[in-house]
Amino acid sequence: MRRLFVPIIALILILTSGTAVTAAPSPLTTYARDTWKSMVAMTDPRTGLVADNIPGDLHNPSAYTSPTNIGGYLWSAVVARDLGIITDAEARRRAGQTLDTLATMRHHTASGMYYNWYDPRDGAVLTKLPDGSAVTPFLSSVDNGWLAAALRVVEGAIPQLRAKADRILAAMNFGFYYNPDATTAAGNKGLIAGGFWDTPPAGCSLPRAGVWFTCNHYDITVTEPRIATYLGIGAGQIPASAYYTTMRTLPDNCDYSWQEMQPQGPTTTINGITVYEGSYRYRGITFVPSWGGDMFEALMPDLFVPEEQWGPTSWGRNHPATVAAQIEHGLNDAKYGYWGFSPASNPFGGYSVWGVDAMGMDTNGYPSDVQSGSYDAGFGTCRPAGPPAVYGDGVITPHASFLALPYAKGPVLDNLAKIKTQLGGYGPGGFYDAIAVKSHTVARRYLALDQAMIMGAIGNELADNDIKRAFVTPQFEHAIRPLLARETFNVPAGQHLPQLKDRP
Predict the structure, then answer these.
(1) Is the C-alpha dihedral spanning 293, 295, 297, 298 positive or negative?
(2) C-beta of residue 138 within 8 angstroms of C-beta of residue 145
(3) In contact, 84 and 464? CB cutoff 8 Å
(4) Residue 1: is its pLDDT beyond 80?
């Protein structure tokens, strides 16, 4: 049985005089209310499908959406209910309408997976994007992971909709993505593919099981696709060994000297699998890196899976270190005065990947600014270090700060307040998607994914981990918690903000 959450709308302090005083609302409550406005504005009232994005004036949403966006709307509705922004009846109506539409949408029957792009106005699969370019319908493992995560949240948070959500979720088989022969650079086998097409695509593909899989497989631990691996293991569709097969870093030898820096760490064996416990070190902070050095890859799965609690010597060390290093970069290295870097809108048009170059394995790095200041620490004797990075117009992405709430609440609130008041980064639907801090150039639009991350983070902070509690079942915990608990990352304990000081 799942525990049902009874929302606390306001904290009432009963003073000795008998007078009831309502506590001042948290800024997070205001942020959640405004963020929810953007989600409502993006949602088609006929289908209950949320669009991918909308301009800052909350008019004319985009004509495409994805499984991730749809899932984000579902868990956002749960948060809005738990914070008292909408009633329980409205949450049921909204989520129920979305589930009804999902049940009628075209998907891959054998796997139960959904395509990457749909028209939110009628739920039709898109074969042409709004810019006119043709697209071969694709079924992504990570995008379906976020939809499945949302369905689990609905099951746990809205009992009246449990059957509807389960009919969709029960058909989703993440084992379909698993390739037992896919091999990492470290020699371990068993990975999930990036996705598949059910018609022959252009370019590289691997025919298998009647479809065409991507040639790439997810082989890095600190990336967002681990949500799909968690789901597959939790449902008994993927072997538990897949958790250890992925790499903490690439190997430390010269054959892999193209990665950002030379990792350090021991090699160990866990459940018969050889695991290289590599880590990076940036400005005195040690961490297991993501691919791009961004907050989204590192922390989005933590919205659902209590990684810090279940893996105290692995994720419980790495998440605070990741947040600390992002803050260190923004405030003391690049000296932007602000921090929080993750893929989002480009303030000068389009969409870009933002991150901290030094914190990602990608040698080119996800930049933290539009000038793409490149960090190159070298690779021991295999590659000399490059010149010091030069930073300019840093791009701050507010959703990245929200993801850091469990690990640095005070700095998060301070950072967000400055973004709002000093950079003009706030509009009718909450924080705009990205802001270039030097030029004060603002991407005045809202992305459903980024807004949903904000809602999920606030829900966990203010509503007693409501998203995590709705997501986790005893079966899931039994399958996943021991895997996280069994490992120790090569990351020291206690790398929290109070220990960090300005560095030259």
Answers:
(1) positive
(2) no
(3) no
(4) no
- Which of 71, 51, 70, 48 has its CA nearest to residue 61? 51
Q: For residue 436, is it within any domain? A: yes
Alpha-carbon distances of 98 from 78, 83, 349, 364, 456, rounded to whole Å? 13, 21, 31, 40, 18
For residue 469, tell me if it sits in a domain. yes
Element (H, E) at 155: helix 141-157
Q: Hey, which residues does 290 pair with through a beta bridge?
A: 360
- The helix (run of H) or strand (run of E) holding residue 217 is strand 217-218
| CATH value at residue 390 | 1.50.10.140
pLDDT in tens, 367-401: 999 987 689 999 999 999 999 999 999 999 999 99
Nearest to 361 by CA among 388, 340, 379: 379
SS3 label, residue 21: strand
pLDDT in tens, 187-217: 999 999 999 999 999 999 999 999 999 999 9
Cα–Cα dist 409/371, whole Å: 30
Which two tokens mark 439? 């030029």
Number of domains comprising the chain: 1
pLDDT at 474 over 50: yes
For 375, the domain range is 256-265+285-490
Residues 341, 437: contact at Cβ < 8 Å?
Answer: no
Q: What percent of the chain has pLDDT over 70?
A: 93
Strand ranges (E), 325-412: 344-345, 351-352, 395-396
Helices then strands, counting H and E runs in the chain, come out as: 15, 24
Exposed/middle/buried for residue 473 (C-beta within 10 Å: 0-12, 13-18, 19+): middle
Quote the tokens at residue 472. 């986790």
pLDDT tens digits for range 242-253: 999 999 999 999
pTM of the model: 0.94
How many other CB atoms are there within 10 angstroms of residue 384's CB atom? 9
329 within a domain of the structure (yes/no) = yes
231 lies in some domain: no
Q: Which residues, at least 6 apart from 165, have a Cβ–Cβ distance to it below 8 Å? A: 99, 151, 152, 154, 155
pLDDT tier, 25 (very low <50, low <70, confident <90, very high otherwise): confident
Q: Among 23-32, 155-164, 168-177, which stretch is predicted with the lowest mean pLDDT?
A: 23-32
- The mean-pLDDT minimum among 21-30, 115-124, 394-403, 412-421 falls in 21-30
Q: Which two tokens stand for residue 308?
A: 């810090």
**β-pairing verdict for 434-436 and 206-208:** unpaired
